[in-house]
Amino acid sequence: MSAQSTAAIPSADVWRPSQTRRRWSGWLFYGLAVFSTLMGLVMLGALLYDIFTDGAREVDWHFLSNYPSRIADNAGLRSALLGSLWMLAFTAIIAFPLGVGAAIYLEEYAPDNWLTRFIQLNIANLAGVPSIVYGLLGLGLFVRWLELGRVVLAGSMTMALLILPLIIVASREAIRAVPDSLREGSYALGATRWQMVRQTVLPSAAGGILTGTILALARAIGETAPLITIGALTYVAFDPNGPLDIFTVLPIQIFNWVSLPQKEFHSLAAGGIVVLLVVLLTANSLAVYLRYRMQRRLQ
Amino acid sequence: MINLRIDAQTTDAVATPSQNGQTDAILMTRSLNFWYGSAYVLEDVNCDVRPREVTAIIGPSGCGKSTFLRCFNRMNELIPTARLEGSVVFRNRDIYDRAVDPVEVRRQVGMVFQKPNPFPKSIYDNVAYGPRVNGYKGDMDEIVETSLKRAALWDEVKDDLKKSGLALSGGQQQRLCIARALAVQPDVLLMDEPCSALDPIATTRIEDLIRELREQLTIIIVTHNMQQAARISDRTAFFTVAESGAGVLVEFNDTQKLFTTPTDPRTEAYITGRFG
Lengths: 299, 276
Prior knowledge:
heterodimer, A: mainly alpha, MetI-like fold, 2 domains, 12 helices, 0% strand, B: alpha/beta, Rossmann fold, six-stranded mixed beta sheet, four-stranded antiparallel beta sheet, 10 helices, globular
């Protein structure tokens, strides 16, 4: 056997690996990777520059505290901002416990059988369903059948459905990343399954779960289609004060302004986008901060 | 009923009466057979573990040593395809009886794993974890201090109990895991190759600790290291892989006898280094 394997190694004059070609392909790949990264950064930079030069001067207290108006100088997005915040709050209240609960069940309790795998596959599929389909579902289910009307709660429930798969998938990843040795260590001390989940798995997975939830909520705040479908208004000149008030949200207000012919309203739309981006980036930084803090606590 | 008290010392471990043919063993296995799915892992193991002794389990890789160890605290059933036949008797009661809650068994039969696995919590919370989940209401500071002292870790960590358990060295982490296991006052401590991830100095400290702990509780230790088994154990069980592919208990005897005058040729071959 040893004689065979020695014979299998080709002698030096037949086997002369090319150093230069390999080094070149290495550099080429490096260049492509850097280019891909820069593409994203440049696009984001251009987008931010364009929007901020157009919209930043529109954003002041007057803009934030006034209702929309036919007269561009008087117009603000107070009702849309409040509507977005109300909707976001109730979406979080509905989607977070359901999503995390489902993830805990699937990862820690569910037996590994065809039914569980079928559910998991379909949750992944749900994450890819176009948002307008959720809007139609929300319209049929919450607005018409539950007779909630075109209120914040109906919007929140629709958005919760939309982001539930995202929260479940992110939470499952976070829970699965907790090493089994910790689960065994917990069981070996006489912990019940729930004690093990509550005191070992959830603290370790909290960072990932929170990050996933915040990113899902950030998606919800930017969605327009499902809310137009359920009939969120385009012109609201009063504050939504609770889950059962009719409402509009920032993206709808921005869309509304963009579709008007006058130039002044286009600047207002840019201002609205700035506000929306600030809310989004704040949410994302919060996610990054939370993850950092959790990781440091666990080192 | 299984005793659920958490006292400072559970002294009745040795007091099991040897009447009506019952042995004084604290743990016994009878006709123990074990499968993972279709893989036959343990074949007909009968083994009596005496209280207040260190019992070492040695044998080549894949002979089911760790699986056997995990039968004593029902850790195997966390694996969905695991199947066990026969009985494991702890203080005259079959722990695989339907009426027995594995949570109760694990409180009394503690375990230390191959790789140190402290929780990502403070040293204090690591030790307090077991008493807390078991509903201990007494002086937690005292139980933490006592347990860390019993695990010979107190002097090294007493000034920063709030520090993360993961910030300790490997050997310290393993002693923290021992302290954590001791904090629920188990009668038996299972150790699955506790030194295999440690350097020689840390290993020596754990071995010293095992010798001290023998005064207080029953220890069953799986080890790859025959010298270690010879150094620390009172009795040694030698497992090997049988024709069936499953692990079998070949020989179980006083450690000194097993290493000097083995009765089975397979034991002799293994301890003299001719296989495994």
